[in-house]
TrEMBL record:
The keyword Isomerase does not apply. Residues 627-760 form the Hemerythrin-like domain. This is Heavy metal translocating P-type ATPase. It is found in: Cell membrane. Keywords: ATP-binding, Cell membrane, Membrane, Metal-binding, Nucleotide-binding, Transmembrane, Transmembrane helix. InterPro entries: ATPase_P-typ_cyto_dom_N (IPR023299), ATPase_P-typ_P_site (IPR018303), ATPase_P-typ_TM_dom_sf (IPR023298), ATPase_P-typ_transduc_dom_A_sf (IPR008250), ATPase_P-type_domA (IPR059000), Cation_Transport_ATPase_IB (IPR051014), HAD-like_sf (IPR036412), HAD_sf (IPR023214). Belongs to the cation transport ATPase (P-type) (TC 3.A.3) family. Type IB subfamily. Residues 119-217 form the P-type ATPase A domain.
Length: 768
């Protein structure tokens, strides 16, 4: 039998026997059978004494002296002075306390236990064209699996065909299903919330993301928390203090009953009940947020942190570059640049290639199937596309040196990466890519500062100019760029020498620094296995705001644990003083102590309940609005590049094509963008005013809307002036100013809304 289950059954039997004996003795007492009642209560006392003595022996074997020793003395004393009712009450109190503690810990660990209890045991692998049920352990990379509706994804892989609608709540805490198209990677442990789909496994089940979460959950143990170890140390001096108080009361009064009364109200120590229940409750709460904490010690250190050190790429930024610009070489067309590049990069697994193909799809570009594709690591990819040899990657010998110099300068100013595209040896253009700052990063850092973080440091191996641009946007206190893994370890150690330090990272090169920190936090959704194993805390969702949620939980759990223990001990000490003075007989003292213990445990379980913490509360209706407008943003962002490209391409001698591009921009602005902005004014901004404290908080955003509308009207007047005759040269300077201004204002406004408003929907409805 499982040891934990056997212990639970033994506690249940002890509770049933002691309660039945207490009630039976009470019935006999009321019937006038006092001698028989005392006999029954004496038996109950003796029955409780045996397991209590065993608990003391077990503690001594483990090198600990717990307050269960006080219970043994109280039970023995009750028998010695013939306070049989008090002894029976102590027995019930001990059994009830054990049962309550087990229930509290079992309930608190329920979310962690659920993680590994729902781990997939089998998979449906295609064999001879038919899906056959096989043990999940035999699944290998490359196997084609079928995932039926309602079943758990058995291994990490990519959607082989069609699309998959997945419930990721077990890993991320997110309640809404997420749709993944063909070729998109999905993680094990998620549940198919739609129709059946085929999955191409990329890892074995043992190496999958969910298996890692299960291993982490098994490592989690509340008893390792420093506040729990403090309880053991407290018991070491509380026991002699109790014995001294009991002995003094006996010596001064000459009545051994008073000594027994002191022992009764000192049994058991509320601190030992409160700390494990509150810490385990905190571990459960973090698990609900998609955060696995490796033990109560890590949870408590997280709540004490004063310094936050973060890697940049994949932590503060999305780790998924996006195309920020497509610039054609002289004589080439921007549409051809993306067309050739996406065709070749369809066959590449490089992260930049994925971004280029994604941008082509978003812009409606349908590249053909290439042939003869060759990928050269560190250089790029080449292949035949419609009879032309296309190369995508690093620049070759410059044929337009001045144009290339300008593009490199632009990329450096924008903090962008460059991918050069040539066809038959002739340059056709360059694609600029940027790794954007996470929308929730700035708000998360503000929340963590509000929760007690005093210093934020960013570490990165990236170029100083790129790192500084991110640091300025997020308001970090110090930026350390060009850092090697050894440099990161040294920097983290310097910070740990000053204060309790949390380090957050996601890559293999971050693992040593995570191990060096007081609390290492890994971005486990897409992070490396090495960083996950080195970390104390793993964010199973690819969302930085979950770390702020976990810190809220950590601080609240520790506060409740200390509060419960302090209040319980204060009440126990007062009761001990009353008992020593003869004001509290043993039987009444036992009832009072039982009430104290129950109050302590109930208070500790408050750590299981939701609390707002540093996250603004967002109601369901507002969250729905946020998600709706966030989706609008994602569809409106790609066309914004058309505005800048149109400004770049306005020639000194405007022609019909310039007028056509301007009208296309104007149609986008008036047909899609302005209706979106006006809908925000009508629906979203009033709702955000209620969430964030009044209409004034949205005034700057409304002012941006007014400026956008002014510039769009100005562009429209230019088009009216041009009419059918075409643009006049004197219009060009103002047109460029108008377009560049629109592009800059829109980018800033979109970023502001995503940070200030849409980031609230990343975890709305799941408070800490």
């Amino acid at each position: 039998m499982n040891p934990g289950r056997a212990a639970h059954r033994a506690t249940a039997v002890l509770l049933a026997v002691t309660v039945a004996g207490l009630v039976c003795g009470g019935a006999l007492y009321l019937a006038g059978e006092v001698t028989a009642a005392d006999a029954v209560w004496a038996v109950v006392t003796a029955v409780a004494l045996a397991p209590a003595a065993w608990w003391v022996v077990s503690a001594l074997r483990g090198g600990r002296m717990g307050v269960d020793a006080i219970a043994v003395l109280a039970l023995g004393g009750a028998l010695a002075v013939r306070e049989y009712l008090a002894g029976a009450l102590i027995g019930v109190m001990l059994a009830t306390g054990r049962a309550l503690e087990e229930h509290a810990l079992r309930r608190a660990r329920r979310d962690l236990t659920a993680l590994y209890e729902r781990a997939p045991r089998s998979a449906r692998r295609y064999e001879d064209g038919e899906p056959r049920l096989v043990p999940v352990d035999v699944v290998r990379p490359g196997d084609l699996l079928m995932v039926p509706a309602g079943e758990t994804v058995p291994a990490d892989g990519v959607v082989a065909a069609g699309s998959a609608l997945l419930d990721e709540s077990a890993l991320t805490g997110e309640s809404l299903p997420v749709e993944y198209g063909a070729g998109r990677p999905v993680r094990s442990g998620t549940v198919n919330a739609g129709s059946a789909f085929d999955l191409r496994a990329t890892r074995t089940a043992a190496d999958s993301a969910y298996a890692g979460v299960v291993r982490l959950a098994r490592e989690t143990e509340a008893a390792s928390a420093p506040v729990v170890r403090l309880a053991d140390r407290f018991a070491a001096w509380f026991l002699p203090v109790t014995l001294l108080a009991a002995g003094t009361a006996w010596w001064l009064s000459g009545d051994p009953v008073r000594a027994v009364a002191v022992l009764v109200v000192a049994t058991p120590c509320p601190l030992l009940l409160a700390a494990p229940a509150a810490i385990a409750s905190g571990l459960s709460r973090t698990a609900r947020h998609g955060v696995v904490v490796k033990g109560g010690g890590a949870l408590e250190r997280l709540g004490q942190a004063r310094t936050l050190v973060l890697d940049k790429t994949g932590t503060l930024t999305s780790g998924r570059p996006h195309v920020s610009g497509v610039v054609a070489a002289p004589g080439a067309d921007p549409g051809d640049v993306l067309f050739w590049a996406a065709a070749v990069d369809r066959m590449s697994s490089h992260v930049l290639a994925e971004a280029i193909v994604r941008a082509a799809r978003e812009r409606g570009v349908s590249p053909p199937q290439p042939s003869g594709v060759v990928e050269r690591p560190g250089t790029g990819t080449e292949g035949l596309v419609e009879g032309r040899r296309v190369e995508v990657g690093k620049a070759t010998a410059p044929s337009h040196p001045e144009w290339e110099r300008v593009q490199r300068a632009r990329a450096a100013l924008d903090g962008a990466m460059t991918v050069w595209v040539t066809a038959d040896g002739d340059p056709v253009g360059v694609i600029l890519l940027r790794d954007t700052v996470r929308p929730d990063a700035a708000r998360t850092l503000r929340r963590m500062r509000a929760a007690g973080i005093e210093r934020v440091v960013m570490l990165t191996g990236d170029r100083p100019e790129v790192a500084e641009s991110v640091g300025v946007v997020l308001g970090v206190d110090r930026v350390l760029a060009g850092q090697t893994p050894a440099d990161k370890v040294a920097a983290v150690r310097r910070e740990t020498g000053r204060a309790v330090t949390v380090m957050v990272g996601d890559g293999v090169n971050d693992a040593p620094a995570l191990a060096a920190a007081d609390v290492g936090v890994a971005m486990g959704a897409r992070g490396s296995a090495a960083s996950t194993q080195a970390a104390d805390v793993v964010l199973t969702a690819d969302r930085l705001d979950r770390l702020a949620d976990a810190m809220d939980v950590a601080r609240r759990s520790r506060r409740i644990a200390v509060q419960s223990a302090a209040a319980g001990m204060a009440m126990s000490l007062l009761a001990m003083a009353a008992a020593a003075a003869g004001m509290l007989p043993p039987a009444a003292g036992a009832l009072l102590q039982e009430a104290i213990d129950i109050a302590v445990i109930v208070n500790a379980l408050r750590a299981l309940r939701s609390a707002r913490g540093t996250r603004p509360a967002v109601d369901a209706a507002t969250e729905s609005l946020l998600r709706r407008f966030e989706l609008d943003h994602s569809s409106l962002r790609p066309p914004l590049e058309l505005i800048r490209r149109t400004a770049d391409e306005l020639g000194e001698r405007p022609g019909p094509e310039d007028l056509g591009r301007l009208r296309e921009v104007h149609r986008f602005l008036t047909g899609r963008l302005l209706p979106h902005e006006r809908a925000e004014e009508r629906a979203l901004y009033p709702a955000m005013g209620q969430v964030l404290g009044g209409p004034e908080v949205t005034m700057t955003m409304s002012r941006a809307h007014a400026e956008i509308e002014r510039l769009v009207r100005r562009l429209g007047r230019h088009l009216d002036l041009a009419g059918n005759a075409g643009l006049r040269p004197e219009q060009l300077d103002d047109l460029r100013s108008c377009l560049y201004g629109l592009h800059a204002v829109l980018l800033l406004h979109f970023d502001q809304e995503e940070e200030a408003y849409f980031s609230l929907a990343l975890g709305a409805g799941s408070p800490a």
